[in-house]
Amino acid sequence: MKNIVPVLALSLISLTTAAQQINTLTAKEKKAGWKLLFDGTDKAGWHTYLKSEATASWQVQDGALTTDEAAKKNGAEGGDLVTNDEYENYELSLEWKISEGGNSGIIFSVHEDPKFGATYLTGPEMQVLDDAKHPDGKITKHNSGDLYDLKKAVSNAAKPVGEWNKVRILKKDGHLTFWLNGTKTVETTIGSAEWKEMLANSKFKNWKGFGEYAKGHIALQDHGDQVWYRDIKILVL
User: Fold this and answer.
1) Please, which contacts does 49-55 make with residues 24 or more away whose CB atoms are closer than 8 Å?
2) Residues 142-171 pLDDT 10s
3) Three-class SS of residue 19?
């Protein structure tokens, strides 16, 4: 019995250390040039698409950016959250979890212009989904880790609803690679013959402006369902 207290103390220390690592940069990451896009406390550095600031539909709760359904019910305007800055070549790392039956996405190379009424009109997307219970889960190229409606993930690496999923997106000179929970899910090159064929066979084939901007904002999609994002960091290449 006398060993229980030290074991519990070590467990609590481990949990505290793990929690402290969320929304922070290690010394190694700082030296390499990584930057936090979200520090776990406020919405600085983000705004709602085509708005001057982040609307109340996005809140910070327990160290995560989340779509606040209560705020929406009280009249808060929704919309995708986008970075204030634009990026072209980078490595992006973040974590997400989705509500039961929920849908969201990580959209990149977003061109912000009133003639484009939504982020997805210009930006390709890494799908975020409850694959088991959302209708899109039954549609090829609409599952978590897919390059939405363009390329299916080589394997389904998503964790169950309620668990955090780790994303890594590498975009360099048009070459695009997705990882979900350490598994490479998609690799392609924007503008390549493969890309043009995928585009021609997608819902975006006649969308002028889609995938045409090398540099753009990174967006977290408000699809009407609750979703959580945290530990968002970027390394500009």
Assistant:
1) 49/79, 49/80, 49/81, 49/82, 49/110, 49/112, 49/118, 49/119, 49/217, 49/219, 50/79, 50/112, 50/114, 50/117, 51/79, 54/81, 55/79
2) 999 999 999 999 999 999 999 999 999 999
3) helix
181: left (phi over 0), alpha (psi -120 to 50) or beta: left
Q: How far is CA 176 from CA 107, 115, 153, 190, in A?
A: 13, 26, 13, 7
Quick one: tokens of 150? 């363009």
Residue with token string 């776990």? 40
DSSP H helical segments within 22-58, as ranges? 27-32
pLDDT digits (tens, 9 = 90+) for 176-198: 999 999 999 999 999 999 999 99
The pairing of strands 90-98 and 227-236 is antiparallel
Q: Are 23 and 35 in contact (CB under 8 A)?
A: no
Residue 111 is which amino acid? H
Three-state secondary-structure class, residue 128:
strand
